[in-house]
Amino acid sequence: MNGVIVPFFQIQIVLMIAVVAPWLGLPSAWTGARAIVAYGLLAAAALLFLWVVRHNPLDNFSGRPEPPPGNRLITTGPYRFIRHPMYLALLLALAGITLLYGEPWRWLILAVLATVLHFKARLEERLLCERFPEYRQYQAHTKSILPFVL
């Protein structure tokens, strides 16, 4: 980042649109094992999203890495296990959609999006450490995006 402004939010939106781009073909799997897994990922994403907003109201969110004025640090619900559950919900949903479409190029775009979210989370966490001194301790005992893994 070193003084370079990276438009994470704009890049994130473009990549999300590219993954779900319906004008580039119809899903190839509406039924079958692949579809069941895809719908499972979509359901998991929806449930995680609902759990997130139960503990962290939407007015506490921002699509940008900078914490919005007046926001507060949330460490309950899914935040007990991971620091960025909304990113995980987004990735689960887009993985489900990508699986439905079955086109390899969508997986590539999803991998690029995951990389963008990783760097966006790192910047966001630096800013959260500045705003909330207790964030470093929270960071030390919770994973970033994947519970028990990353």
Structural features, described:
There is one protein chain. The protein has 150 residues and is mainly α. It is built from five helices and no strands. The chain has helices spanning 8-20, 33-55, 85-101, 104-131, 135-141. Helix 1 (8-20) packs antiparallel against helix 4 (104-131) and helix 2 (33-55) packs antiparallel against helix 3 (85-101). The longest helix has 28 residues, at 104-131. The model has no long low-confidence stretch (mean pLDDT 86).
Number of strands: 0
Count of DSSP H/I helices: 5
Low-confidence runs (pLDDT<50, min 5 residues)? none
Calculate the terminal CA-CA distance, rounded to whole Å. 21 Å
Q: What's the helical proportion of residues?
A: 55-70%
**Strand residue percentage:** under 5%
Principal-axes shape call = globular
Structural classification: mainly alpha
Mean of all residue-level pLDDT scores:
86
Order of helices and strands: HHHHH
User: For the CA atoms, what is the radius of gyration?
Assistant: 16 Å
For the sheet with most strands, the description reads: none
What is the topological layout?
Elements: H1 8-20, H2 33-55, H3 85-101, H4 104-131, H5 135-141
Helix pairs in contact: 1-4, 2-3, 3-4
Which characteristics define this entry?
single chain, 150 residues, mainly alpha, globular
Question: In a few lines, what is going on in this structure?
Answer:
59% of the residues lie in helices and 0% in strands. With 150 residues, the protein is mainly α. The mean pLDDT is 86.
